[in-house]
Amino acid sequence: MVESSGTFISGLGKGREAFHSEVTEYCLRIGERTSEDFLRLFSCSKIMISLASRPMERARIISELTGVHERVANKLSPENAGETLQIAVDEGVTTPKDIVRLFQADDRQRYLNRHELWAFDIEGQPWKASINDNVAHGRAEKYIAYIIDRAIENLLISYDEIVSALGVVKLAGWLPSELLGQIIEAALKKSDKFTEEDLLRAAPPSSLVTHVPLDYLWDKVVVPLIAEQHDYVPKKSDASGGNSDGGWSLRPSPESVSKVESKDAPPPASSEDGDMVGEDEIIETEDEVRAPDGLPTVGMRKGLGAPPARKAQPG
Fold first, then answer.
1. What is the pLDDT of residue 237?
2. How many distinct structural domains can be found in the chain?
3. pTM of the entire predicted model
C-alpha cells in the first residue's frame, strides 16, 4: 500500500485488482459507503473466514481490537476468531471503523469475493443521486469521476473507448460553449492530429461529471467498459446458477457431470432385445430363403421376425 499526496494507491500493481482496491478504499473515505455498511455485507465471521489462509493476519486484527494476546489469538480458528470479533463489536470493545481500518484495502481485494465487493462499492447507486441534494450529488460526481480516472490510470479503459461510448455529438451538446472553445483552440494549436486523449485532457472526467448526466456516464462507460468487461459483476450466463467464487470458473462440478452422464447414457443392451441378432440366429445355408435370380441369399431370413430354422441334430 502506498500513500501519495493523501490519495491511496494500491500496492497490487496496475490492473483490475489495484483499480478495485482503490475504488473500495475511496468510497469509504469520501462517505459514499460507511464502515457500518461494510460490516453489514461482510460480517466479522465472513472477514475472518476469508483470512483462513492468513492466521497471523487474523491474530493481528483480533489482538489489536480485543486485547487478546497475539499468541492466543493465533490459536483461534477462523470461525472462533469471527465470533470473538463480533462479541467485541456487540460489547462496544471495538467499532466497525476500527475493523475496516485494520482489514487493509489490498487484503479486502485479495480475499473477499470480487462481485460482492463491487456490489458494496455501488450499493448507494451514485448515478441516481438527486440534483436537489447538493451534498449527495457532489459526492456522486467525485466518485464517478474517480472511477473513470482510476480505470484509465490502471489501463482498464482507453480514451478512444470513452469518447466512442459517449459520442462526440452528444458531448458537444452537453459541454458549455466556453469549454468547447478551449477544446477547439487546443486542437488548432496542435501540429499533429488532435486525438481522443487530447479531448479528454481538455475535458477530463472531473469536468465531464459536472456537465454530462451521471446516469449516462454510468450506463455508457462504467457498466459496459469497466464493470462488465473486467468481471466486477457476474457474467450474464452465470445469473441463474452463478458460482460462489466470483464468477471466474464456468466448469461444472464433478457431481453435475456424473449426473448428466448417467442421465444421458443409453440403457444396457438386453439379451431379449428383438433387434439384436445372436450367434445362434445366423441362418444356415439350407434354411435360407431362396431369393429372386441375381440377388444374394446370404443372411436373408424366411420371414420378418420369424425365428430361424434349426438343423435336426442326429440322434
1. 62
2. 2
3. 0.73
